[in-house]
Specification:
By secondary structure, this protein is of the alpha/beta class. Helices cover about 25% and strands about 15% of the residues. Bound molecules: flavin-adenine dinucleotide and NADP nicotinamide-adenine-dinucleotide phosphate (NAP). The site of flavin-adenine dinucleotide has 32 residues, from helix 3 and strand 6. NADP nicotinamide-adenine-dinucleotide phosphate binds next to helix 6. Keywords: FAD, Flavoprotein, Monooxygenase, Oxidoreductase.
């Protein structure tokens, strides 16, 4: 039986699907439909035209709304790069704080500063040649990020003092419904986004552990990330709990003013000798002459490249028993010994059994020097309980304290601080939670997304950074990946995208095979005082799954994210027919609709042509 394309179409379509009007009907040849045989793909395409031409140019992007939660370095970077890389993007950045900066907005404790040189802890595209100190103080870092947020007009996308309470996937709309609390008036409202991106940071959900009898303590307690500046420290007996990077920075600041500091540090830690830092590295002020030299772009670029290269070259140190790791062990042992004026008793209690880099190494200017002061006691035993006016440690000694500073870090399980309910009604918190969660750790595809959570992307989340490289560079690469994803989604009629489970499983399998080579796996000897390397990289669990780092170097992380593997994602399409080419629209491009538009952007002056990028730009096609 011979049928026309049109009549076949009418048979296959429901009334709603039938095209009401078919402009410029295709003068197709009749096709033979033999009900007895399976049609070839081409025949299927021509015999099942459940699809109507969309009346728009093929390159016209679909309007979609993108919501980002968090305006720390990641959120700011998204606010700068996404509008540049996805022109016309409808972007909203929700931030609970009164201004941007994230970690650098909230952490105002005395001594807060970066522990990597400021010249590598800045954006790649808007460097500051005039950092005052090698390890810039928190205020200068905060001002820098707020300044570039202003310069690149991030504020127009920002909704400050908006706390996200919940995000829930709406399958019918293919959108995320995000419930928000306006902290200015406590009103609760919701907004829908086609794409939902979290940029919540690793350390934003700071936490004070539930120490026994803490409620009985009559003195003042606060967390280092929530510093109470109204509390005078002069002449006080202070308990400082924690020797992570925060505790290490705080000790040298409070020791000179306090009557006594009892420093509760239940784990040993490496204190880094900073490489190639000139002059007085404790404060590391740049000389006026040096700063002047940085005004020359070539000189500055050279300096910056050398500094940053040290961080990109650092990968070898993370392998178990590597010569590079052994070298650090020897170097840091010697420098620590020197800095505590050869007090071997103290050092025996502090130098770890576990290898360097298992916990994040930190230079801690002044930390070891403060430890040997007469008004400081290092207490390595854990905390038994609080008393009315002090702390009883596991060593059986009760020490008086008027102020307790908890430099006890954050929830390193990376479980989000609010429900994120995915396609099957599963809460990401229940999926990732270490205590009985579906996976029990952050289960992701390349750290960027999770099966079952369509149209959701994680920025600065699990596996984000390589152990080498720098955080800002990593964020910029991750945002660039996200920009590519958004361009694809809005440009190719994609309704939903989600990583395939098999792809996430393969990534997990790779992680599980790779990390045992590194210093973050193992080191879980439970003998008191022995190895026990616990850090946010292994979720605070010795030998726990390493979700804090990318399984590979920073350079490799950038390589893996540079060209997205589109085949690892599953898609549905906006066109009711599901036709993936529906986005081609009416066959025209937008430029062709504009009489004066340049239709030959591919033609360039010959000496401006770089064959590597020739015909690769999404912007000039
Ligand atoms: C004190 C400190 C010092 C550090 N020093 C260094 C360093 O020297 N070098 C280095 O490489 N790294 C350092 N880090 C790590 C640092 O976290 C990252 O380098 C970087 O700042 C992370 O940026 P982010 O935007 O991903 O996260 P964050 O800066 O943590 O920002 C997350 C944002 O999300 C917002 N948010 C969270 N929940 C919600 C919600 N429900 N609704 C709305 N908004 C929400 C928060 O308010 C915050 O602004 C440091 C961290 C801390 C805490
Ligand atoms: N620029 C910087 O120098 C800087 C400054 C601050 C933070 N940071 C970044 O932020 C990360 C987090 O640093 P952080 O110092 O805030 O947190 P952290 O590294 O997680 O350290 C938390 C500290 O609190 C201790 N602690 C936690 N719970 C405890 C309990 N119940 N009893 C006794 N001690 C307890 C931990 O001991 P255990 O180790 O034994 O668990 C650890 O010493 C750093 O790794 C770094 O990446 C950087």
């Amino acid at each position: 039986m011979i049928k026309s394309v049109e009549s076949v179409a009418q048979e296959f379509l429901t009334p709603q699907q039938r095209c009401l009007k078919t402009p410029n009907p295709v003068k197709s040849k009749p096709v033979v439909v033999d009900k007895g045989t399976t049609p070839t793909p081409v025949e299927a395409a021509t015999t099942q035209p459940r699809f109507c031409i969309e009346e728009h140019p093929g390159d016209q992007p679909r309007q979609i709304r993108v919501g980002v939660v968090g305006a720390g370095i990641s959120g700011i970077t998204a606010g700068i790069l996404l509008p540049a890389k996805v022109p016309g993007i409808n972007l909203t950045i929700l931030e609970k704080n009164a201004d941007v900066g994230g970690a650098w907005f909230e952490n105002t404790y005395p001594g807060v500063r970066c522990d990597v040189p400021a010249h590598v802890y800045q954006s790649g595209f808007a460097p500051n040649t005039q950092w005052k100190e090698e390890f810039a103080q928190g205020t200068e870092i905060r001002q820098y990020w707020q300044d570039i947020a202003r310069r690149y007009e991030v504020y127009k996308y920002l909704r400050l003092q908006r706390k996200v309470l919940r995000a829930e996937w709406q399958p019918n709309e293919a959108q995320w419904k995000v419930t928000i609390q306006d902290l200015r008036n406590d009103k609760i409202y919701s907004e829908n986004f086609d794409i939902f991106i979290t940029a919540l940071g690793y350390f934003n959900t700071w936490r004070i552990p539930e120490f026994q009898d803490m409620d009985k303590f009559q003195g003042t307690i606060f967390h280092s990330s929530d510093w109470d500046h109204s509390v005078p420290l002069d002449g006080k007996r202070i308990a400082l709990i924690g020797n992570g990077a925060s505790g290490i920075q705080i000790l040298p600041e409070i020791q000179p003013v306090a009557a006594q500091v009892d420093h509760y540090a239940r784990s040993r830690t490496w204190i880094v000798h900073p490489p190639n830092v000139e002059g007085d590295w404790q404060r590391g002020l740049f000389t006026a002459e040096k700063l002047e030299s940085f005004r020359d772009p070539q000189t500055y670029l050279q300096y910056r490249k050398e500094k940053e290269a040290e961080f990109f070259r650092g990968f070898a140190t993370c392998f178990q028993n590597s010569p590079e790791n052994d070298f650090l062990r020897q170097m840091w042992t010697a420098s620590m010994l020197q800095r505590v004026e050869n007090n071997t008793t103290l050092l025996n209690d502090l130098i770890p059994d576990f290898p360097p880099c298992c916990r994040r190494p930190t230079p801690g200017p002044g930390y070891l020097e403060a430890l040997i002061k007469p008004n400081v006691e290092l207490i390595r035993s854990g905390i038994e309980r609080f008393a009315r006016d002090g702390i009883l440690a596991a060593d059986g000694v009760e020490r008086k304290a008027e102020i307790v500073i908890c430099a006890t870090g954050a929830n390193s399980d990376l479980v989000p601080p609010f429900p994120i309910i995915g396609a099957a009604g599963l809460d990401l918190r229940a999926a990732w939670g270490a205590d009985g969660g579906l996976y029990g750790f952050p289960y992701t595809y390349l750290g960027m997304a999770t099966p079952g959570f369509p149209n959701a992307l994680w920025l600065g989340g699990p596996h984000v950074v390589g152990p080498s490289g720098t955080v800002p560079n990593c964020m910029e690469n991750q945002v660039t990946y996200i920009a590519k994803m958004i361009r694809k989604v809005r440009g190719q009629g994609i309704r939903t995208f989600v990583p395939a489970k098999k792809a996430a499983d393969d990534f997990l399998e790779y992680c599980l095979a790779f990390f045992p080579r590194t210093v973050w796996t193992g080191n879980d000897d439970l003998t008191p005082g022995k190895a026990n390397c616990r850090s946010w990289m292994n979720g605070g669990r010795p030998n726990g799954f390493v979700h804090g780092l990318f399984p590979g170097s920073a350079s490799l992380a950038n390589y893996a994210r540079r060209d997205p593997r589109w085949e690892d994602w599953e898609y549905t399409y906006t066109n009711p027919s599901g036709n993936r080419f529906a986005y081609l629209g009416n066959g025209w491009t937008t430029r062709e609709m504009q009489p004066d538009a340049d239709l030959t952007p591919h033609l360039k002056q010959q000496d401006h042509i770089d064959l590597k990028s020739y015909l690769e730009g999404w912007w000039d096609v």
